[in-house]
């Protein structure tokens, strides 16, 4: 099953050799749109975000086009956090920031605006203007356990 999460590609848009036509991040990876690279290996390119939440905000892009986490294979999934760890340490040492958020949006409803998987690394400082927050919610009696059970069952299949 493919999960598109509301992503609509123009009719006829095609993927060739892992590059999706009309995808801004595929163009950045191919070098046809400029970007400022901070890290690159055979699977990933990490660049400075063009509209940073804070100075030093970096996005990690897998080179092969995938829209979101649901399309990610285990090899890339297992490598992306190793890249994130490496960049996080460099950010911490260089910017001396006491905090760092790692986030990754899947689907329009989650705030995804570019439908090529990417992981955000955002340096954080006390009292900065970055907002990654939610109102704490609650469960009815037994609701959390019920959802957990259903998810657990789904993962066994
Ligand atoms: P999303 O909202 O999809 O999680 O994040 C998309 C991110 O991509 C945003 O933070 C946005 O600033 C960044 N972005 C969009 N277009 C470009 C671009 O052309 N170059 C770079 N470097 N970042 C971009
Ligand atoms: Zn792409």
Descriptive account of the structure:
- This protein is α+β, with helices and mostly antiparallel strands and 157 residues long.
- Helix content is 27%, strand content 18%.
- The mean pLDDT is 93.
- The structure holds guanosine-5'-monophosphate and zinc ion (ZN).
- Zinc ion is lined by residues 20, 23, 25-26, 65, 116.
Key words describing this protein structure:
7 strands; binds zinc ion; HIT family, subunit A; alpha+beta; binds guanosine-5'-monophosphate; 3 helices; two-stranded antiparallel sheet; globular; 157 residues
Largest sheet: 5 strands, antiparallel
Order of helices and strands: EEHEEEHEEH
Say how many strands there are. 7
Ligands: guanosine-5'-monophosphate, zinc ion
Percent helix, as a range, is 25-40%
Please report the number of helical segments: 3
Shape: globular
CATH T-level fold name = HIT family, subunit A
Distance between the first and last residues' Cα: 14 Å
Given this structure, which CATH class is correct?
Answer: Alpha Beta
């Amino acid at each position: 099953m493919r999960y598109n999460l509301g992503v609509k590609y123009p009719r006829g848009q095609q993927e060739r050799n892992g590059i999706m036509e009309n995808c801004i991040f595929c163009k950045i990876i191919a070098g046809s749109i400029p970007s400022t690279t901070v890290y690159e290996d055979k699977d990933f390119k990490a660049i400075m975000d063009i509209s940073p939440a804070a100075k030093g905000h970096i996005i990690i892009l897998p080179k092969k086009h995938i829209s979101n986490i649901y399309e990610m294979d285990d090899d890339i999934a297992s490598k992306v956090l190793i890249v994130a760890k490496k960049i996080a340490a460099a950010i911490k040492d260089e910017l001396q920031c006491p905090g760092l958020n790692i986030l990754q949006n899947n689907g329009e409803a989650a705030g995804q605006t570019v439908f090529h998987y990417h992981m955000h690394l955002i340096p954080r400082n006390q009292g900065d203007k970055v907002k990654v927050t939610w109102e704490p919610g609650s469960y009815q009696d037994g609701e959390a356990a019920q959802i957990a059970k259903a998810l657990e069952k789904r993962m066994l299949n």
